[in-house]
Q: What sequence folds into this?
């Protein structure tokens, strides 16, 4: 699997994270001082989660530009793999990023990482635009929703830590599992078609996917 | 409130999380999710995997000027959504159908057009996707209502069928199915479910075998396909 790149791939027209930090240094220093005077947070580049929170809370355009620099090229890769044509793809990426701007105030870093939250936006955008369907989703505030009896701190994923564990687990996944996982997320094909194309029995495709998901779940839950 | 005991299984949840299911099938899964915190949690974990995979994708440079174009549109977005419309007011009583089913079929399906099928059993098409929106998939969603204690005729059919119980329940070789329980059946199964004494109302989604992915499990094939 390819190594996960972070800052090396900023779009040339996006401010780098470092510039963002310089512009926003006062804010971060202030926040860090409020919670923990000894915190090194003021020296660290803000994470994608921090940036997305700033966009939601402060309508922070510099933070948004940094998010764009990181995510727009990845959204383009995602949408291209799932069938968007090169021209339409640019518009879809822009629309997805505008959705990020519009909805950022609903982002809760205790529930999901910025990558996860933006993945769900891109996924739904693709269903809307390329498949021209709606994406049926639950409404968390629906009175008819059966509440989670265990909904509490113990189920809240400690997003920053679990994201790091998940990344490590992805990096060390056996290649044959990683490949199928990519296909499951990034190719609009039934598992049976994937199996035929790879010359694998359907059961093998499913068991590899299951093994991959088991490992990743354990990483998320810190059960390793 | 009892929690469901019959779940979609990992493959269908993964296809839902990755956004690859046809809309009627996704509607059946989401209806189960509204009743099943455990499967909601599983989907949230699968979305986290999707986020990490997105992060690891080889980036493709966007067109020059793309960022400027988006930045220039932010003000317009802000203006358009400055005053978000108030959420629709909640009904006083808890509706029978959870979201997202409610926005397709109303609070209890009563406003749909019901057609009798056999004595004691009727069905109503759930409008999923407008004309030309369903992308040519063969999937169809219907509500089915069965009178109490009614045994269904034995049957098999060519496609697959996903059933989610909304009210009442049924029983078959695999056990009792109550609100929120999801059953999955294909042509290999021939059986005879019987509605509970209070009757059964369920969402039934039929789909051509090639559209459905992740068809794991030998569950059951309840009720008529037509
Ligand atoms: Zn479930």
A:
């Amino acid at each position: 699997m390819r190594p996960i790149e972070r800052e090396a791939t900023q779009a040339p027209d996006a401010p780098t994270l470092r510039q963002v930090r310089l512009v926003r240094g006062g804010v971060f220093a202030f926040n860090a001082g409020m919670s923990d005077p000894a915190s090194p947070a003021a020296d660290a580049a803000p994470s994608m989660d921090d940036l997305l929170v700033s966009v939601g809370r402060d309508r922070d355009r510099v933070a948004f530009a940094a998010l764009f620099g990181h995510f727009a090229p990845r959204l383009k890769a995602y949408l291209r793999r799932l069938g968007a044509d090169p021209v339409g793809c640019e518009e879809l990426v822009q629309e997805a990023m505008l959705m990020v701007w519009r909805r950022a105030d609903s982002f809760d870093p205790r529930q999901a990482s910025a990558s996860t939250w933006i993945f769900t936006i891109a996924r739904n955008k693709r269903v809307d635009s390329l498949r021209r369907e709606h994406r049926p989703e639950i409404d968390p505030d629906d009175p008819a929703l059966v509440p989670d009896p265990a909904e509490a701190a113990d189920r809240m994923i400690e997003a920053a830590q679990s994201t790091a564990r998940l990344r490590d687990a992805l990096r060390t996944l056996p290649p044959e599992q990683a490949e199928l996982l990519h296909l499951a997320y990034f190719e609009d094909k039934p598992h049976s078609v994937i199996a035929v194309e790879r010359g694998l029995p359907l059961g093998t495709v499913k068991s590899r996917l299951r093994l991959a998901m088991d490992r990743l779940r354990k990483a998320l839950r810190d059960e390793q | 409130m009892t929690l469901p005991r019959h779940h979609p299984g990992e493959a269908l949840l993964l296809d839902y999380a990755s956004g690859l299911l046809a809309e009627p099938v996704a509607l059946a899964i989401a209806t189960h999710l509204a009743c099943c915190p455990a499967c909601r949690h599983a989907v949230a974990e699968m979305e986290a995997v999707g986020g990490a995979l997105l992060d690891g994708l080889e980036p493709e440079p966007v067109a020059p000027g793309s960022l400027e174009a988006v930045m220039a549109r932010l003000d317009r977005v802000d203006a358009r959504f400055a005053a978000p419309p108030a959420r629709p007011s909640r009904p006083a009583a808890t509706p029978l159908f959870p979201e997202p089913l409610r926005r397709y079929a109303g609070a209890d399906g009563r406003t749909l057009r019901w057609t009798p099928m056999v004595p004691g059993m009727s069905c109503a098409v759930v409008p999923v996707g407008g004309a030309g929106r369903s992308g040519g998939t063969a999937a169809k969603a219907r509500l089915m209502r069965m009178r109490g204690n009614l045994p269904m005729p034995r049957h098999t059919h060519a496609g697959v069928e996903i059933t989610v119980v909304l009210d009442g329940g049924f029983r078959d070789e695999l056990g009792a199915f109550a609100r929120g329980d999801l059953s999955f059946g294909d042509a290999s199964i021939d059986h005879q479910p019987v509605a509970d004494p209070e009757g059964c109302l369920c969402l039934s989604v039929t789909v051509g075998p090639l559209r459905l992915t992740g068809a794991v499990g030998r569950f059951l094939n309840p009720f008529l396909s037509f």
Q: What stands out?
A: Chain A has two domains: 1-136, 158-224. Chain A touches chain B through 91 residues (CB under 8 Å).
